[in-house]
């Protein structure tokens, strides 16, 4: 039998399980392939004893509508930066990539499918350069990868965020309040923007368009003057005022290089109050509700397309490539073309123009 190993890396994302299931189901149509999963990204291979899971039909039964990932994931470490405790108690890192490749050979792994965001795909490229037969599958709720039209998980996050806007509208209207809803999106404002349009928010503040607090206040004042005594502002966690920066802190998780963003909604509340907005303002931070739970039908379909394509790329030996959606096709793009290029909201794009066309204020 030939073996393909699947790993999920980085933050979880609705649709990961649908990709895993699709890989397994497509592989089952070939007589000579079996699928195994590495637990918590590549940590499962590097740990002693090795932590892997046989991914057969029984293991993936009915998982396409489950959130999370049945093989776990991690944002910490990885084969090139494995956290190591120094003798003085501080943490450093070690490159264990060669050891991991040897272990994969020992386990009889012929190919690897790595499902993850930009950070994970940089690791995929580095492993490919070391000779590993690897295929990338993109994922992130932020939809900020340039090489693919969409990532699975994004539509689910937009749906969750839109439902939150819908719910906040009724309570805001009842109490004549302003609600600030903080959505995920560290560098890209796609979730906030789509949910603001779908939910009919008054303002949408995103990292790509630093805001002028006076402009946001004017929008709210005009609305209150018209007798519509409530308002919803959707703000992406990475948004910032003109001349300011996104609010972030170091992660306390050992080996997690990512900054933890928080505080955008609270800062906006403070700024609005300072600017003289008199209405009662409340904040809601959606956080990981956007990442958990059942993927929408759209995300299940996209994730399934990605899983089937990834396994077919293994059969075609299209290693060093990542699956991507280029409407209406699912294609293979070379990993170097896919990594390090962010898909940010273009302030002059049709989507922003559409939002402005229905009166949404960006604070610009
Ligand atoms: O990249 C996806 C994402 O959900 C971002 O929107 C968010 O800033 C980040 O991950 C949160 O990651 P963590 O759960 O590791 O704090």
Description of the molecule:
With 364 residues, the chain is of the alpha/beta class. The chain has two domains: 2-152 and 295-327, Rossmann fold, CATH 3.40.50; 154-291 and 346-358, 3-Layer(aba) Sandwich (Rossmann fold), CATH 3.40.50.460. The protein is built from twelve helices and 15 strands. A seven-stranded mixed sheet has the order 3-2-1-6-7-14-15, with helices on both faces. Strands 9-10-8-13 form a four-stranded parallel sheet, sandwiched between helices. The N and C termini lie far apart (59 Å). The model has no long low-confidence stretch (mean pLDDT 96). 6-O-phosphono-beta-D-fructofuranose (F6P) binds at residues 11, 75, 140-142, 184-186, 237, 258, 260-261, 291. The record marks 119 as: Important for substrate specificity. Keywords: ATP-binding, Cytoplasm, Glycolysis, Kinase, Magnesium, Metal-binding, Nucleotide-binding, Transferase. Substrate binds at residues 140-142, 177, 184-186, 237, 282, 288-291.
Question: What does the secondary structure layout of this molecule look like, with pairings?
Answer:
Layout: E1 2-8, H1 16-27, E2 33-38, H2 43-46, E3 52-54, H3 57-60, E4 82-85, E5 91-94, H4 97-106, E6 109-116, H5 118-129, E7 134-138, H6 154-175, E8 178-183, H7 190-199, E9 203-205, H8 213-225, E10 231-236, E11 248-250, E12 259-261, H9 264-275, E13 281-285, H10 297-315, E14 321-326, E15 329-334, H11 335-338, H12 350-357
Parallel strand pairs: 1-2, 1-6, 6-7, 7-14, 8-10, 8-13, 9-10
Antiparallel strand pairs: 2-3, 4-5, 11-12, 14-15
Bound molecules: 6-O-phosphono-beta-D-fructofuranose.
Residues 11, 75, 140-142, 184-186, 237, 258, 260-261, 291 line the site of 6-O-phosphono-beta-D-fructofuranose.
